[in-house]
Design a protein that fits this description.
This protein has about 60 residues and is mainly α. It is built from three helices and no strands.
């Protein structure tokens, strides 16, 4: 006696995350952190203030 297809409530993001094995969660988390750190370093290299075109230095007397 079949009751037909059973409808289950969809998993939340937290439940889906917790269903992943701990080692896999750790690897994913470390990968995201490493990607973010690399992005910060690369951005700093691209926006290096030493390589900007020379401009006139601002003095305190000019700010008044």
């Amino acid at each position: 006696m079949s009751k037909g297809p059973q409808i289950h409530a969809p998993k939340t993001y937290i439940q889906s995350w917790l269903s992943i094995p701990a080692k896999t969660r750790l690897a994913l988390s470390l990968s995201v952190c490493a990607f973010a750190a690399i992005g910060l370093v690369v951005t700093d290299m691209v926006e290096d203030p030493k390589k900007k075109s020379p401009s006139k230095p601002t003095t305190t007397s000019e700010l008044s």
